[in-house]
Specification:
With 230 residues, this protein is mostly helical. The protein has ten helices and no strands.
């Protein structure tokens, strides 16, 4: 156990004689699956609420946005810690569900703002003048034009969830054993920061590089789809 990186184990072994490279690769599957599943759920909920608030307007918009404002006032980590305190140990599927349900509030505000902007454009007025139903306008004319901003915010949200999941796993509150995760690997390697630094540096570097890559992609998408003025 705790063998340094070498020909037999390129990134060394941990305290239980497990290959660090294999665990980092398996941890990537778990961390990315949690992030992608949670973000897909949160973006879907945020898009539905934002489109409903932005296109319906009136009291529906006011009620939904006040609820979103109230939810944004509560820290997301606080909600997750409450869930952990209630359930003691969150299964992987429930963790994805909780991360998704608590992460759609900012997306709904973005979608609402985009819908309000699109509603004032000529192609929407033309569709309304031709007698198109609200459902058709929302699904055929508004939703495709939200693809660019949603792609950018989705990519950035994946990086945020990866960090959040790693932090929860480091606290022992995230991905349950025996599933490997980068945060859990850092937690297990904490007593060996000096004697076997590769056991914590490798998963930590994986988190940093993955989040950096995802954020760079998100920034590129944001700049590509950002509205430009002539």
């Amino acid at each position: 156990s705790l063998q340094p990186p070498g020909p037999g184990h390129w990134l060394g072994t941990d305290r239980d004689n497990r290959d660090v490279l294999s665990r980092v690769v398996n941890g990537a599957r778990v961390s990315l699956a949690v992030a992608i599943g949670a973000v897909a759920l949160s973006v879907t909920l945020g898009t539905l609420v934002g489109m409903l608030a932005g296109y319906a307007g009136g009291w529906i918009d006011a009620v939904l946005m006040r609820l979103v404002d109230a939810a944004l006032a509560i820290p997301r980590l606080f909600l997750l810690l409450i869930m952990v305190a209630i359930m003691q140990r969150i299964p992987l599927a429930v963790l994805i569900l909780v991360l998704g349900v608590t992460g759609w509030f900012a997306t709904s505000r973005l979608v609402r703002a985009e819908v309000l902007r699109l509603r004032a454009l000529d192609f929407v007025h033309a569709a309304e003048a031709l007698g198109a139903s609200r459902r058709r306008i929302a699904m055929v004319h508004l939703l495709p034009n939200l693809a660019g901003p949603l792609a950018a915010v989705t990519t950035l949200a994946v990086g945020d969830v990866i960090l959040l999941e790693a932090g929860l796993s480091f606290l022992g509150l995230g991905v349950p054993a025996p599933w490997p995760s980068w945060g859990g690997m850092i937690l297990e390697a904490q007593p060996y920061l000096i004697t076997a630094p590769w056991t914590s540096l490798v998963p930590g570097l994986a988190v940093v590089l993955t989040v950096l890559a995802v954020n760079l992609i998100g920034e590129a998408l944001h700049e590509a789809y950002a509205p430009t003025t002539p």
